[in-house]
Structures are given as C-alpha cells and as structure tokens.
Amino acid sequence: MSNPLEETGDSSFMSQYTVVMVDDEQNILQSLKRCFRREQYTVVCAGSGAEGLKLVAATTNIAVIISDQRMPEMNGSEFLTRTRELAPNATRMLLTGYSDMETTVAAMNEGGATHYIGKPWEDSALLQTVRDCVRHYHLTIENRRQQEIINQQNEELLSWNQNLKDRVMAQTVQIRKQIDDLRALNLCQQDTFHGMVESLAALVELRVQKSRHHSAATAALSVAMAESLGLPEHERETIRTAALLHDIGKNAMSDSALASDDGSFSDEQLLKYRAHPVLGQTALDSIVAMRPAGVLIRHHHERYDGTGFPDGLAGDAIPIGSAIIALADLCDREMSRQVGSNGVERALGTIAKQAGKAFLPSLLPHLTAPAHALFDHRFELHDELLEHEVAPIKLTSGMMLTRDLFSRSGLLLLQAWTELDEAKVIALQRIFTIDPIGTIHVTTRRKG
Ligand SMILES: [Fe+2]
Ligand SMILES: [Fe+2]
Q: Which residues does residue 118 pair with via DSSP β-bridges, in sequence order?
C-alpha cells in the first residue's frame, strides 16, 4: 500500500521528532547545528557520551542519534550501543574519520551503529541522509500505530462476531422452543377439536339410535374417497368433520320421526327432515373453525341431477366434499341392509344404478376399495372375533371394543369397533373413577 506522506511530500510530521548530536569538540557541534538550523525537527546536543545518555533518557521521539567516534571516557560506538535500550527505533550514526574505519565497521557489525558519516562531510548529503532517517522512523512508528489499531479492531470484530454468534445461537434455541411449544399447543388444540367433533357425533348417534355407527362409517368412506381423489389434507379433515356430523340437524326431529323411514313421514315430519342439513349447518355456524364443514353438511342431500335438497344444486355446483359425503352416506345405508360375504357387491351394484342421478359417476371408482375394506372389516369383526370381558383397569392400547361403551349414568363413551390407544385408555380409566362401570367387552385378536 502506498504511503500518502511520501506521495504528497508533506514533511510537517518532522517537527514531532528530535535528532541528538554528541561530540566532545564544541566547534564540530556548532558547525553541525549550523548545518541543521533550517530543519523542521528539533536538534539537541551533548558534549560527551555520559551527557548524551542523560539527554537520550530524558527525550522522547528521538529519530536519529549522531555521535563522534573519538571521545574521551566513552567512545562513539560504546555510546551508541548503550542508547539501544533507551531509543530502540532511532537510527544511530557514527561520525568518523578514515583512520577510524576499522572501529566503525566493528561498531556496525555489533549493531551499535546503522550508518556512518565520514569526516569531512558534505552538508547537503548529511541533511538528506538524516531527513530520510527521520522519515523512515516516522513511517516505522506510524505503521506500528496503524498495526495496533488494526489489531485492536480485529479483536473487537472477533469479539463482536462471537457475541453475535452467541446471540444468534440463543435466539435460535429460543425460536426452536417457541416452535415446539406452538406445535404442542397446535396438537393439543387439534386433539381437543377432534375430541369435540367425536363427542358431538356420539351425541347424534345416541339420539338417532337407528343409524348407530353410521357417522363413523360415512366418515371412514368419505376420507378414503378424498384420499383416493388426491384432495389435500386440510380438505380431507373438513370432509371428515362434516361426515361425522352430517346428520347433527336430525336432533331437531321428533323421536317418532327418527324412528320412521323417509317414505312414511307425515308432511310435518318431512319438512323437518328436509331441514336437517340447514339446521346442521346453523348448529355449527357459531364455531368459526367448523364453518367450512357446515357448508358441506348443508349440501349433503343435494343430488347430481339437481333434485336434492335444500338448494337443488346440480353437477359441479355441489361442493366436492358434499358429493363425497352423499355417496358415502348412500353406500353405508345400502351396506347396512346387506348380509353375507358378497353383500358389498350387491350394495355397490345397487348404488351404480344411481350414477348420474344421485351422484357424479366419476366418483364411483373411488368408492369401490373403501367400501370393500369397511364391509370386510365389519364382516370379520362380527363373525370371527374373540370377545371377552375385562375390567377398566385391565384395558390396554390395541384392544378393540366389541360393543358400545356406556358409563353407568348412560352416557355413550365410545362406539363399538373403536380401537383403543394410550390416550383413550387413560381417558376411560379417568372417567371410570368418577362414573364407575363393571366390565368392558373387547377383542384383542381374530381367529385364523
Ligand atoms: Fe342426512
Ligand atoms: Fe346420513
């Protein structure tokens, strides 16, 4: 890197420095002083080595020390050597005649002197040499000062970096913890939401005894169809919620109407029945998170040909979730009428006849596999299960209820064919401590 001082020729810095001259001969000192009188740096003189040492010890910023070699008591090279500790960065010059050349070389080899000036000297050459030495001294000192600043700034930068790293680490740990907390809270809220939906579905089925397990079956078929259609997870969740609660509006119907078939409704019962999708939507409307499911519930009795209710929507105007639930609902009702191992084929055959009228024909292929799975599951469970009774305290996850489970006070806790997991076992055992019950019918494995 170029030095700005050298480029501009600025020599104002010279005034900060001092040049020391030592000679036992006053006339030589006088002529040296005369030679240097116009220089910007300070010139101080001493008449002996001892006096010179005192002067050097008491003076700062000494850039150059010039000493005569031939002096009594302490010669020039000894004097210069002794100044090394006092002014280590100063340039040391020996004034010497030709006859002292041997001593001068020795002094330079030992490191006491770095330059020598032969007597008699050329004023302009001497002035230039001393100026160069002062400049060199200044550059050395300035470089050192700047290096110290750089070192200090580097240390500060390192310290800042470390500090920053520590703070980023601490904040990362904190953010991770907040994300974990949020995730846990979210899971907890999801569990609460699912629990609430399942409780509501259980309440519906408690009231609508005729269609026990219908909500769960409709939900299972609907979710499987939604998966097969490649619908995103949040839509599948909405469809599941709507399917579980699709008939919640039936709570407004009388017991006698609920016990009747739609074909035997009186006019008043029919009106109530046809209102149940809208009543279901209205019941959920106050819960913001349930509004999308409420829309699907409203339209679960629409038909593809536009002859359904409550709005008479047709074709693509029916939300896909509602169309799925309507088909799942139809499928479960058809399968409930069938018995025997090929009942599902008969049910699907009956349903297929309504393609293009009750439902979108392209949905049918997505129903086949879920319908078989559900039917086989029920068939196996009904015909091949090993049922036994256990006390609440003996419940373990993996067991499956074989009958609806009620508390002693008559509250439906879980439906038959619900598989118990750790959370359900804990919840049941907690309920039984406040509302006891005898034994519970479960199965843990099937034959063959
Ligand atoms: Fe319905
Ligand atoms: Fe239904």
A: 96
Residues in the chain with pLDDT < 50?
1-8, 446-448
Q: Ligand 2 centre and the CA of 277: distance in Å?
A: 10
pLDDT in tens, 8-17: 467 788 899 9
**Measured in angstroms, how far is the CA atom of residue 250 from the centroid of ligand 1?**
8
In the reported structure, the alpha carbon of residue 310 is separated from the centroid of ligand 2 by a whole-number distance in angstroms of 15
Which ligand is nearest to the Cα of residue 300, counting in written order?
1
Domain 4-143 indexed as CATH 3.90.1150.10: no
Q: How far is the CA of 191 from the centre of ligand 1 (A)?
A: 26
Q: How far is the CA of 203 from the centre of ligand 2 (A)?
A: 14
Q: How many CB atoms lie within 10 A of CB 57?
A: 11
Domain over 208-384 is classified CATH 1.10.3210.10: yes
Ligand 1 centroid to residue 301 C-alpha, Å? 6
Ligand nearest to the CA of 327: 2
Q: What pLDDT does 41 receive?
A: 94
For 23-26, the CB contacts below 8 A with 24+ separation are 23/47, 23/67, 23/68, 23/71, 23/95, 24/48, 24/68, 24/71, 24/72, 25/68
State the DSSP H helix or E strand holding residue 432, giving kind and residue range, or none if neither: helix 422-434
Residue 325 Cα to ligand 1 midpoint, Å, equals: 10
pLDDT of residue 66: 95
Give the closest ligand to the alpha carbon of residue 214: 2
* pTM across the whole model: 0.58
Considering the chain, tell me which residue range(s) the CATH 1.10.3210.10 domain(s) occupy: 208-384
Q: Boundaries of CATH 3.40.50.2300 in the chain?
A: 4-143
pLDDT of residue 184: 95
